[in-house]
Write a structure and sequence with these properties.
Elements lengths: L1 E4 L2 E4 L6 H11 L14 E2 L15 H5 L7 H4 L9 H4 L9 H4 L3 H16 L3 E4 L7 E2 L1 E9 L5 E10 L20 H13 L23 E2 L14 E4 L13
Parallel strand pairs: 5-8
Antiparallel strand pairs: 1-2, 2-3, 4-9, 6-7, 8-9
Length: 250
């Protein structure tokens, strides 16, 4: 009879097959006769199987030193990843209001350049503000232009019209943006390939600002650049301006 107590296994002396069991025990532990041993070695039954015990994982230091190759980490060379350049480069914050931009020389110069370009393009004429005209608001939008490596390229200031204040039927009639169908592009490319034509590509700078308006549209003078001699006049738009509902159609 086999009895178990405190994880120790022993055989009862009252068993009839004590001698046979002793021989089996001796074969298991490579001993001649367990009865001749004064203090027999107990058999310990572990609480958890050995297979469930996780093997200790090697430390990173032991893994890094298993090969003789000199790596950058071993030599102490640590360089920033180029794809994280935008997150590590300090970028000038874009002002939320034109009054903040006027205090910065870079943004102020960008606003001056925008006004100069609009005046050179004859975008508007200053006219008296009468009660029978609807004046659209205007505001400044600022954007930081970056290079491919994340470095600052230039500061861009854009004067836009507050198109959400326009009234349909009064300030504009319809809104649409003329686009070229893909079938037309494929036809042109097919003809160029068939007749061996040379293809050229161009980009129109400030394309929205080159279209002439058919409707009457008036905006407030640019904030921060109000004509001191005519402060109460408004801008009668001759050309389209960013933000207008009808600007894409011109």
């Amino acid at each position: 009879v086999i009895t178990t107590n405190a994880n120790f296994v022993s055989f009862s002396d009252s068993s009839k097959d004590h001698h046979l069991e002793s021989q089996c025990l001796a074969q298991m532990h490579n001993i001649e006769d367990p009865s001749t041993i004064e203090n027999p070695i107990p058999i310990v039954i572990p609480n958890t199987p050995l297979l469930d015990q996780p093997s200790p994982s090697p430390s990173p230091s032991s893994l890094s030193s298993t090969h003789p190759m000199i790596t950058r980490s071993k030599a102490g060379v640590i360089k920033p990843n180029p794809k994280y350049a935008l997150t590590t480069t300090s970028v000038l914050k874009e002002p939320s209001h034109y009054s903040l931009a006027l205090k910065h020389s870079g943004w102020h110069q960008a606003m001056k350049d925008e006004i100069t370009a609009l005046q050179a393009n004859h975008t508007w004429d200053l006219v008296p503000h009468t009660l029978d005209i609807h004046v659209i608001g205007s505001r400044w939008v600022f954007k930081t232009k970056l290079k491919r490596d994340g470095q600052l390229e230039r500061l861009k200031a854009c004067l836009v019209a507050q198109g959400y204040t326009q009234i349909q039927g009064l300030d504009f009639l319809k809104t649409f943006s003329p686009v070229v169908k893909f079938a037309t592009i494929w036809l042109v490319l097919s003809l160029a390939l068939a007749f061996d034509w040379a293809l050229e590509q161009l980009d129109v700078k400030n394309a929205f600002l080159n279209g002439y308006l058919r409707e009457l549209a008036y905006i407030e003078q640019p904030p921060g650049f109000i004509d001191p001699s005519k402060p109460h006049r408004v801008c009668h738009l001759n050309r389209a301006l960013y933000g207008l509902k009808q600007a894409p159609g011109h």
